[in-house]
Amino acid sequence: MQPRAASGERAQLSPPPLVVDIARKLVKAGFETWCVGGAVRDALLGYEHLDWDLATAATPPQVRALFRRTVPVGIEFGTVGVLDAENTMHEVTTFRRDVQTDGRHAVVEFGASLRDDLARRDFTINAIAYDPLGDRIEDPFHGRDDLERRIVRAVGAPEDRMREDRLRALRAIRFASRFEFEIEPATWRAVVDSAPHLTRLSRERVKQEIEKTMDQVARAGLAMRMWKESGALAALVPALADVSAVTLRSLDLLPRPGGSVRADRAMQRLIALFADLPARDAERALRDLRFSNKDVGWVGSVLRAWSTLDREMALTLAAEAPPPDAVLRRWAGITGRVRSRAVWRLAAARFAAARDLHQAAPDPRQVASAYRRAMRIAFRDPIEVGDLAVDGDDLRTAGVPAGPVMKTVLSGLVEYVLEDPARNVRDELLVRAMSILGES
Question: Facing residues of 94 across strands?
């Protein structure tokens, strides 16, 4: 989606009434208060933004004294969460200036002016303030001009802004790719110069930035390409230093999930980002980034299935004749029912990316047709041990010993019904089990 130019500003700058009520109470108590941050930027671009934050001359104790329901979300940095009448929290932060920073954390000083507060922000497009009571805009660093020009530009000296907080290099990339802006040349040079220092960031902050990119950015591949070109990817995720063009392009071509499941898209993109790697290497990199065991396990299991099937799928789907049901069932048996959709989405995106890059790949109509059939088969036919018409008790009664032999027999029975689902009959499977047992 293309952002709109910053026109009709007053009409677009309409904070929710409950946010205006918070500002009014602060101003009535004698404290200058402005709306700041991403909500102002997004409103000027014509985007809806639900999280409106405020900057004020009031100190944290003064804010907490004024409002009955508050949360100390970052008292040491001047931030108090104020709960409105609908239990939505809005961050209210005291005007501040940085007095010391190590590239990860800042020591701040209160008692600053609004201009001082805006001067410590990262980019001009994020350094715009709006007075919801007086209907005034404060824009000392010409952020609205940069919105019009579609530019991400650092406030002041770019190298200073990056040195103060190394995460800003990654944020510059995310904003540029999210809004499809250019990064101003001096700011881009500062991003590149920051790359060797990005290892000072905590792994949790890097993980959060990757998650925000996968979730918020329509062209996540463009963002990760800038990570690669700037040197950020090699510094932060060395396993992806040589990530392929197909992988980067595939991030932008993943089929949209059903409905509006954004989390599903973000996870699918994470799988696609690591698809060049062996599953074990991908898991190691994700653990290093502090992803949960659940997420690491899911990505690894999908990539193991993909590495088993990728070449066969490409060759089979490139043929003129559509793949027979038996082949699709066997593929579903390899992926497992719950992973089948993820593997097919990854395949479709990578085939589409290869075509975009003028590489040989299956015809999209063949892929789409096979995908629809594969999903019906995966959720209709017997493809897993749990689908068999016999279970472990049946096999033990028939004389199959527990342990590795039982596992071998069950695997053989799954292969048997994958060839023909009509074979999934108890008596026939027991006969087949004895045959497998005799061969083992």
Answer: 56
